[in-house]
Known about the structure:
By secondary structure, the protein is of the alpha/beta class. It is 46% helix and 23% strand. It has helices spanning 3-22, 28-43, 48-69, 73-91, 148-152, 164-183, and strands at 71-72, 102-115, 120-128, 135-142, 195-203, 211-219. The chain has a five-stranded mixed β-barrel with strand order 2-3-4-6-5. It is globular, with a radius of gyration of 21 Å. The model is unreliable at 36-48 (pLDDT under 50).
Amino acid sequence: xxxxxxxxxxxxxxxxxxxxxxxxxxxxxxxxxxxxxxxxxxxxxxxxxxxxxxxxxxxxxxxxxxxxxxxxxxxxxxxxxxxxxxxxxxxxxxxxxxxxxxxxxxxxxxxxxxxxxxxxxxxxxxxxxxxxxxxxxxxxxxxxxxxxxxxxxxxxxxxxxxxxxxxxxxxxxxxxxxxxxxxxxxxxxxxxxxxxxxxxxxxxxxxxxxxxxxxxxxxxxx
Length: 222
């Protein structure tokens, strides 16, 4: 059980015990209301605890797993083109049966363009994606779409958290960490025409669009 779930349960128990200690005439509706308030307390935070959790596991668990599990992007593309379902069962990861498969990848590419004006900023590599027409995109935010990093990790599961809101905070703080500690170091540089090396994850898109959420980016000569 996660530390966040434990905290919520403790708060709920305290509220209920307090209610019993102060009065035995509380209605079921009042008890229900108190339980809802307790859950709200347990589920609400200012992001600091979750941010600290991500900061703690980034160098000790996230990066080591990505470095160990990463497959060359062109190999993943070839596998998906050959048989996406079979390849997904062998190499893909997802948090439920209805979510897209996610893949941990690494690779190199020459930067074709950089867009920092859009909220969904991106580095476009001069490399064809699965569609054979578009280019591979590395997301640099501040808006990072999908939850590929979270959903590709073997040690993070929805069942470890209180609810969908808390599970969503994991992805939010991962994205915040990426923006502050990964892409901010490179997105303002003159990258066009340079080769970059990346480590990251993407969610499989049947249309062939590859949006990589990076956990590492390095520029040639740096």
